[in-house]
Specification:
Distance between the termini: 92 Å
Length: 724
């Protein structure tokens, strides 16, 4: 039922909200100005017209720029002069025209035209509001944050159920939320004290008073939009043709303007800086990071989407997704998953449709670089190591793929899945070489408020490589016991024998069986010796790259024994977490939890400062870990390394570096030499016009330069260690 409020009560109501309507430097209308407004068919709930304040400066208010408007409540206007505002092809004169305006404060030279209902908003300068049906803000608005106002029940709080459809990992959205924040909140669900602290941190500094006013930043344009309710928009945003924007914050700035387009519906969430939502996209209960795109009918529900991600034509439900996520096409689904970024969900992939319990409580957890093939589907619960490439197929049982950079496939003749460890290094080194440059180029954030690790070889992935190496050794030992009479009767651990076999037979054609990779039927591990060799080589490459980076930062062209001894004094962290794209030692994450619980860290700004402090020490910690990798691979302390070991390291690392470039060239060369790659072109000249040439490929030219520089530095870098 519609209630009726007397006009006298309306006039008194704004006084309760006066803090948001500053009167300094303002004056009331003159009799001449009031008369002019009445002649121009304006009306006012306050018959005295004293509720409207304008600038005191001479010639700062032109009453002739207000026509056919209905006013109510307190109105505070900035400078209003005969100025033309232009945005793209839209040109409008500053002023207020054909609108209902109540409890509004404006900046200078705004244009409000054909806004049928504008209530309780503060507008910046040079704002254009054009053709809007309703734009209002309630006194208890939260702008998408998971907070409560005075007198509200807990049931009013907005949660985002990331990673699990039963909301068992739910987090509260807030304006500065990073993917890392959602990650650390979603993982420790058995620690009530910690979870309560997260809620308190989200509420910290937020007013509980029911006196909120909506805000629109300077130079923002909103046109042809149906509904905006409880919306806060930053400066320089562009909103056109949106259907429904409710209880959201749109972060935007001159350096990182955001855009919302036709048919978009955004409800209960936060849209990050420089992000875009177009063409009937829908998001409900969400946080979208910086420089993201949501378009072409995409549905993002109960999810956190990391920076630099693009989602179109598909559905995402109850997900926590780290930066650099790509998902397109009409039949792609991603449900109840935590995806650690740099991922690509192919057309037809249905990740989340197959639960195996009576409750939708299953989860998918995938390391960065997750790439399921066309029309793949998976059974919950499943877990994938970093850079797992999954071939097209219907995977009917739960998977636990612990081999990073692997290829997973189905053989129609048996139920065990097939896994090729180190597949990317064996057959797709071009992608590894290109990945780092590709993601760096896609990082369009003007403000990089968090460091995102884009290198495929980093502590988080290398620790998985080390685990995979150990697993291959264990499985090889089983294989030798079961197949070779020389080992059949041995009762003791034959790990060293397995290592010797793998080193001495790097091209052996053997198959291992790993029962942990798939429920019921396990997995066949193909090309295990080759994968073992490649894992070791790239682990060495990572270690040397980290040492080079460390010494370069300190102006040390040569690695000396003294430098190695100094590095060994750095704290060693052997377990790492990908926290929202930033790689942090797991022990430091545990320290963060402790500091939150004991009150040493009280706000999310403090948490973000902690991330920054971790990043300042990242190269040091990474280098110390790199040293431990070499010690593990050679089974002795670095102080006992001989010149022969260093020569072996240089040889392997140089080979990996050269192979990266050569395989990248060979992979790209196929586009010019393979017959079937050429059949769509009328001539070689047309193919060149479309594809360009190898010599002009920007990535390959840069890779060649980097490879030559890296290879030339190695002998100099190890010069003091290559001789006994």
């Amino acid at each position: 039922m519609v209630s009726i409020t007397p006009v006298s009560a309306q006039a008194a109501q704004p006084e309760q909200h006066a803090a948001f309507f500053p009167a300094a430097g303002k004056r009331q209308l003159t009799e001449e100005e009031t008369a002019a407004l009445i002649r121009q068919r304006n009306t006012n709930a306050d018959i005295s017209w004293q509720n409207i304040l304008v600038p005191q400066e001479a010639d700062a208010f032109d009453a002739s720029l207000i026509w056919d408007c209905e006013f109510s409540g307190r109105i505070i206007l900035g400078r209003l002069t005969r100025t033309v505002l232009k945005y793209h092809d839209l040109e409008l004169c500053a002023g207020l025209y054909h609108s209902y305006i109540a409890d509004v404060v404006t900046g200078d030279d705004v244009c409000i035209r054909n806004v049928l209902y504008l209530v309780n908003y503060a507008l910046g300068s040079r704002v254009i509001l054009f053709n809007i049906q309703e734009m209002s803000c309630t006194r208890h608005a939260k702008f998408g944050e998971g907070i409560l106002k005075d007198g509200e029940p807990e049931s009013n709080r907005i949660w985002i159920g990331v990673g699990n459809e039963n909301n068992a990992r739910a987090v509260l959205p807030f304006e500065t939320m990073l993917a890392a924040d959602a990650f650390i909140w979603s993982r420790r669900r058995d620690d009530k004290e910690l979870l309560d602290a997260f809620v308190n941190m989200t509420e910290a500094g937020r007013s509980k008073q029911n006196n909120t006013i909506g805000s629109i930043g300077d130079d923002t344009v909103i046109k042809n939009t149906i509904l905006l309710k409880d919306v806060k928009v930053g400066s320089c945003a562009y909103i056109k043709g949106a259907s429904k924007l409710k209880n959201i914050t749109v972060c935007s700035s001159p350096e990182e303007p955001s855009q919302i387009g036709e048919g978009v519906e955004l409800v209960n969430g936060i849209m990050g800086y420089a992000s875009k939502a177009f063409y009937q996209a829908i998001a409900v209960r969400f946080v979208i990071g910086r420089n993201c795109q949501l378009k072409y009918g995409a549905r993002l529900l109960n999810s956190v989407l990391g920076d630099n991600s693009t989602v179109s034509c598909c559905e995402l439900l109850n997900n926590l997704i780290f930066p650099f996520h790509e998902q397109h096409h009409n039949t792609s689904f991603l449900i109840a998953a935590t995806i650690l970024g740099q991922s690509n969900i192919a057309a037809g992939a249905t990740i989340g449709s197959n639960h195996n319990s009576r409750s939708p409580d299953g989860e998918i957890y995938a390391g960065r670089g997750f790439w399921p093939g066309l029309c793949s589907d998976f059974k919950h619960n499943s877990r994938f190591a970093s850079f797992t490439l999954v071939s097209k197929g219907s995977y009917q049982n739960e998977l636990n793929i612990g081999y990073p950079f692997s290829l997973v496939s189905i053989d129609s003749t048996e139920q065990a899945v097939h896994i090729i460890p180190a597949y990317w290094f064996l057959y797709n080194m071009f992608a590894i070489a290109r990945n780092n440059a590709k993601f760096r180029a896609r990082d369009k954030r003007a403000v990089k408020d968090v460091y995102i690790e884009t290198n495929p070889l980093a502590p988080d992935t290398v620790q998985e490589i080390m685990h995979a190496l150990n697993r291959i050794i264990v499985l090889t030992a089983r294989y030798l016991k079961n197949t070779d009479p020389l080992y059949a009767g041995i009762r003791y651990d034959i790990s060293q024998k397995a290592k010797d076999f793998l080193h001495q037979h790097p091209d052996a054609d053997i198959e291992l069986f790993d029962p942990q990779c798939q429920k019921r039927f396990g997995a066949r591990i193909l090309k295990a010796p080759q994968g073992y060799r490649e894992y070791r080589r790239v682990a060495k490459y990572f270690a040397v790259s980290a040492l080079l980076e460390y010494c370069t930062e300190r102006g040390l062209p040569v690695l000396s024994g003294g430098t190695l001894a100094h590095i060994r004094e750095i704290p060693l962290y052997t377990e790492w977490e990908n926290a929202g794209g930033q790689v942090i030692p797991s022990a430091l994450i545990e320290d963060l939890y402790s500091m939150i619980k004991n009150g040493e860290i009280r706000t999310w700004n403090d948490v973000h400062a902690f991330y920054a402090a971790c990043q300042e020490n990242y190269v040091k910690y990474k280098t110390r870990y790199a040293l431990s990798i070499l010690e593990t691979l050679y089974a002795k302390p670095i102080a006992q390394f001989s010149a022969a070991i260093y020569r072996d390291i240089c040889s392997d690392v140089a080979a990996v570096s050269a192979y990266m470039y050569e395989s990248a060239v060979e992979s790209r060369k196929k586009d010019y030499t393979d017959y079937f790659r050429t059949i769509t072109f009328r001539s070689k000249e047309e193919m060149t016009a479309v594809l360009g040439t190898l010599d002009t490929n920007e990535f390959l030219c840069q890779l060649k330069k980097d490879t030559e520089e890296f290879s030339s530095r190695l002998p100099v870098f190890f010069a003091e260690l290559l001789h006994d």
